[in-house]
Amino acid sequence: MSLGPAEVAKIAHLARLAIREQDVPAYARNLSAILELVEQMNAVDTSGIIPLANPLDMAQRLRADDVIEADQRAHFQAIAPRVEAGLYLVPKVIE
Amino acid sequence: MMEWETVIGLEIHAQLATKSKIFSGASTAYGAEPNTQACTIDLGMPGVLPVLNREAVRMAAVFGLAIGAEIARRSVFARKNYFYPDLPKGYQISQYELPIVQKGQLTIDLDEGVSKVIGITRAHLEEDAGKSLHEDFQGLSGIDLNRAGTPLLEIVSEPDLRSAKEAVAYMKKLHQMVVYLGICDGNMQEGSFRCDANVSVRRKGDPKLGTRAEIKNLNSFRFVERAIEFEIERQIDLIEAGGKVVQETRLYDPDKGETRSMRGKEEANDYRYFPDPDLLPLVLDEEFIATTRASLPELPDTKKQRFISQYGLSSYDAGVLTTSRALSDYYEATVAALGGEPKLCANWVMGDLSAFLNKENREITASPVSPVQLAGLLRRIQDQTISGKIAKDVFEALWAGEGETDAIIEKRGLKQITDNSAIEKVIDDVIAANPEQLAQYRAGKDKLFAFFVGQVMKASKGKANPQQVNDLLAEKLKG
User: Fold this and answer.
1) N or C: which terminal CB in chain B sees fewer CB atoms within 10 Å?
2) Which residues of A touch B40 (CB under 8 A)?
3) Residue limits of the Asn/Gln amidotransferase domain (chain B) (predicted)?
């Protein structure tokens, strides 16, 4: 399976990555190569094998339901571009 | 005229009532100052690791067991990728292919005596996003991430619902269930229980489902009903006019009472789910499931049936009294304290007590009249110390904290008059004072009987035993 310029543009948009027009063919080639590798792996018979969700053969550790975090808002907001009334300000997302 | 059938499935998000977030130790308490309950994990800072909250897992399992579902012995968390400012990580941790709860069901009650089983496809654990505030901050949006990371249980129904009414009945039943189980506070104003509806229509008898629209932003039972009704009309009109329903997300506008397309806005339903490498598979053993099962309270439907058989209540009364655990506990404590008379107790709990609670907007757990106090009052009706009517006044005094029933009766002189000679004396006075009415009554104007009863009760300040008044009056009026 190989990807065309339109698919590269879509993937870049979903990942919010700005890519240069002249780099599109190279991205298309490299991404297609990854998919080819996946296709090779697809040829292996995996029936009866439980899909691997994590390479560590362990189960999720659980934590107790306790509030242990203190308010550090001032600390976190010191690096935010804009704040007001305790809110992070971002470009408007609704028209 | 073409006949149409509506097909509805609901996705309900219930915030789980944990103290801390699903993957961090920040508080989930509602109403805090913006961003004071958002820690590095909730903010998606680099290098942090989510650790799953045991209580959120337990609550999801409690729900699954209560709806007769399968609890997955192994479930997996996945990343749902999308960009929005109230989702700092750029992905929401959710469950995709292997959710914790699968294949349950809920029975909803429709019109008198009719019930219907609604399938629940799945319920999975995920984290809530933050909140975007679109009031004007100089043309910018404000982001509060206190809600980010609050545990959610997303409960997905089968497309088994056939009308807006059924959808509302299902939503109410589910709401009752999660509150009853103590896994969600159910506060819809605060967004603890939210609903998206998938709605489609098809020609009656058509086995194929029509194209569906997903309606978002349904945060009250009334909105769900109105939005679905509007959407059904819209789709039918569209098809009958030769158009086609497109699969899309629509937003309900409560002010205009209509749904409108969210097209134009970002609507790339390409979430590119993949297993979250920061989280290991969630494995639940048989012991955990057995312990959780053993901890389940008696469920509302079972309790309702027991109230009908054990207390001889009507289906309606039993239904009302089992809407919440606190209400049914109060009722049973009253019956136990009185040692019987379950119908009398039901009438008072559902009547005067509920009316006073409503009037003052109080929860039953904050009732100033305890079950033992209410039973004390009902005992005095039972042994005819006071009439049911006088009891209402005593109840009001109990509510106001004027002391215990017997003291109130004593202080206010409310003891019922059951002495025949005393009642006869009042009757004689009343008859003597109303010769004209007496003559009319004896001439055949039967309905004047009520007039005499009223006069006697008034003269006795409501204290005469009503049954004795009736009997004695009938005797005396005959002449």
Assistant:
1) N
2) 76
3) 329-477
| Cross-chain residue pair A53–B275, CB shorter than 8 Å | yes
Within a 10 A sphere around the Cβ of B2, how many other Cβ atoms?
8
Cα separation, B57 vs B49, in Å, equals 18
* Cross-chain CB nearest to A66 (options B25, B132, B280): B25
Helix (H, G, I), strand (E, B) or coil at B440: helix
Residue ranges of E strands in A1-95: 62-63, 83-84, 87-91
A63:B52 CB<8 A: yes
Q: Do B141 and A90 touch (CB under 8 A)?
A: yes
Selected from 1.10.20, 1.10.357, 2.40.160, 2.60.40, the CATH number assigned to the domain covering A5-42 reads: 1.10.20
pLDDT tens per residue, chain B (479 residues)? 579 999 999 999 999 999 999 999 999 999 999 999 999 999 999 999 999 999 999 999 999 999 999 999 999 999 999 888 999 999 999 999 899 999 999 999 887 778 899 999 999 999 999 999 887 778 899 999 999 999 999 999 999 999 999 999 999 999 999 999 999 999 999 999 999 999 999 999 888 999 999 998 788 999 999 999 999 999 999 999 999 998 888 989 888 888 988 764 445 568 889 999 999 999 999 999 999 999 999 999 999 999 999 999 998 999 999 988 999 999 999 999 999 899 999 999 999 999 999 999 898 989 999 999 999 999 998 888 888 888 998 999 999 988 898 888 888 877 777 788 888 888 888 888 888 888 888 888 888 898 988 888 888 888 788 888 888 888 888 76
Q: Are the beta carbons of A73 and B25 separated by less than 8 Å?
A: no
Query: What residue spans define the domains of chain A?
Result: 5-42
The DSSP code for B47 is T
CATH code of the domain made up of B420-478: 1.10.10.410
On whether any CB of chain A is under 8 Å from the CB of B296, the answer is no
Instruction: Name the minimum distance, in Å, from the CA of B387 to any CA of chain A.
Output: 52
Give the strand pairing for B248-253 and B213-218: parallel
